[in-house]
UniProtKB/TrEMBL annotation:
It comes from Phytophthora cactorum. It comes from the Eukaryota. SUPFAM superfamilies: DNA/RNA polymerases (SSF56672). PANTHER family: REVERSE TRANSCRIPTASE DOMAIN-CONTAINING PROTEIN, TRANSPOSON TY3-I GAG-POL POLYPROTEIN. Residues 35-57 are annotated as: Disordered. Signal peptide: none annotated. This is Reverse transcriptase. The lineage of its organism: Eukaryota, Sar, Stramenopiles, Oomycota, Peronosporomycetes.
Length: 179
C-alpha cells in the first residue's frame, strides 16, 4: 500500500485498526546492526564533513575508494553511466523519453507559489540561473506547476524542495517492478 493512500485512509477512518506483527529478538538484533553501521559510517566528525566541499566529497567516491565495495565489478561494468567529474551540462540524449501516466480525466495540476523569505527566493533564483547558464535546465512549457520552498542544509546553504502533492495524487504508479 502506498503510504500516502494509507495516510489518507487512516485519516478518513477507513482503516479502523492496525496490527503490527514483529519478532522482538530479530528486531533487537537488527537495531543493534543498524547502530553498528551508523557508528561505522559516522567516524568522521560533523565538522570535518561540513568543511568538505562538494568536489572533495565527489572525489572521495573515486574508483579506488570503491574497490572494497561488493558492487565494484557491477559498477565497473556499467561505468558509462557514472561520471568521472562533476557534470557541468546535461547528458547526451540517448533517445529515451520519460512519460508519466496520469489518472484519466485529470485536469492540470497547478499549485500557486506561496510567498517566500527573500533569502530563499535569492537561493532559488541563483540555483536556476547557474543551471540555466550551464545548459542543465530550460524554461518550463508544462501546464503543470508545483510550489517550492527551501530547507536549511546542515552544512549551510539551502536545499530546494518541490511540493508535488497534487501531481503525485494524479499520477498512476508504474507497474514495472524495480529490479
Amino acid at each position: 500500500m502506498i503510504w500516502m493512500r494509507f495516510a489518507k485512509d487512516l485519516y478518513d477512518e477507513r482503516i479502523k485498526q492496525i496490527c503490527i506483527l514483529s519478532d522482538l529478538e530479530r528486531m533487537k538484533s537488527e537495531a543493534e546492526e543498524l547502530r553498528q553501521l551508523h557508528a561505522a559510517s559516522t567516524t568522521e566528525s560533523e565538522d570535518t564533513r561540513s568543511a568538505k566541499t562538494k568536489k572533495e566529497r565527489f572525489d572521495g567516491q573515486s574508483w579506488d575508494s570503491l574497490k572494497a565495495s561488493p558492487f565494484y565489478d557491477v559498477l565497473r561494468k556499467h561505468k558509462d553511466v557514472l561520471r568521472d567529474e562533476i557534470p557541468a551540462e546535461t547528458p547526451q540524449d540517448k533517445g529515451i523519453q520519460h512519460e508519466i501516466d496520469l489518472v484519466p480525466g485529470t485536469k492540470y495540476c497547478v499549485t500557486r507559489q506561496w510567498p517566500l523569505p527573500r533569502d530563499q527566493v535569492k537561493a532559488i533564483d541563483d540555483f536556476f540561473d547557474s543551471r540555466r547558464q550551464a545548459g542543465q535546465v530550460r524554461e518550463s512549457k508544462s501546464p503543470h506547476s508545483a510550489s517550492m520552498f527551501c530547507v536549511k542544509k546542515p552544512q549551510g546553504g539551502w536545499r530546494i524542495v518541490h511540493a508535488y502533492n497534487k501531481m503525485n495524487d494524479a499520477t498512476i504508479p508504474a507497474q514495472t517492478p524495480i529490479p
